[in-house]
Amino acid sequence: MRMVDIGGKAPTERIAVAVARVRMLPATLQKIRSGKVEKGDVVAAARLAGVMAAKRTPDVVPLCHPIALSSVEVEVKPVTVGVELRAVVKTVDRTGVEMEALTAVSAAALTVYDMLKSSDRGMVIEHVMLEHKSGGRSGPWTRRAQGLAKLKKKRVAR
Q1: pLDDT tier at 11 (50, 70, 90 boundaries)?
Q2: In 3D, which of 16, 139, 7 has the Cα closest to residue 70?
Q3: Domain tally for the chain?
Q4: Longest dimension (CA), the chain
Q5: What share of the chain has pLDDT > 70, as a percent?
C-alpha cells in the first residue's frame, strides 16, 4: 500500500457533492420536526458533525491526503421517509475532495442515528454516494438521474 504521489499535479479548484439518507419511522421524524429530541437539535448536530468529519477525513481513511479545505456545507433536510443529507466540499489543491464529502454525509447520518436511537433502533442509513465532482485531470463527473433511479428500484426490489 502507498499514498499516491500528487506532487506533480497542479492545484485546481475541486468540488465534491455527496448524499445520504436516514430512513426512520414517521414518529421519529416528527420528533425532529417538533424539536422534541432528548439530546437536542438533531439537524444542527448532524451539520456540525459533517463539517468536523470532513476536516478529519485523513484520520479515518488511511491513504487519504490531508487537504486544506476551502469550505464544507452540510444540509440536513427532513423528507417523507426520514432525512436526506447533502455535503458540498471545496478546495484548491492537487487532489479531490470526494472522500471528504462522503465522510461528511456518513458522519452526519451516524449523528442522526445516535441522537434518535432511543426512539427508533430500526433506522437505516442508505444511499450514501457521490453525486458530483469537478476539478482535476479527470474533469467533471455527475451521477445521472436515470442511474440513481435504477439503483433505487433495485434496492426496493430486494
Answers
A1: very high
A2: 16
A3: 1
A4: 53
A5: 91
Count the residues in the chain.
158
Looking at residue 152, its pLDDT comes to 55
Q: Is residue 7 part of a domain?
A: no
Provide the b/e sequence for 134-152 (b: ≥16 CB within 10 Å): bbbeeeeeeeeeeeeeeee
On the question of pLDDT at 8 being above 80, the answer is yes
With 90 as the cut, is the pLDDT of residue 157 above it? no
Sign of CA dihedral 23, 110, 104, 45: positive
CA distance 26 to 42: 15
CATH classification at residue 147:
3.30.70.640
Q: Any idea which residues carry the catalytic annotation?
A: 114
- Cross-strand partners of 129: 19
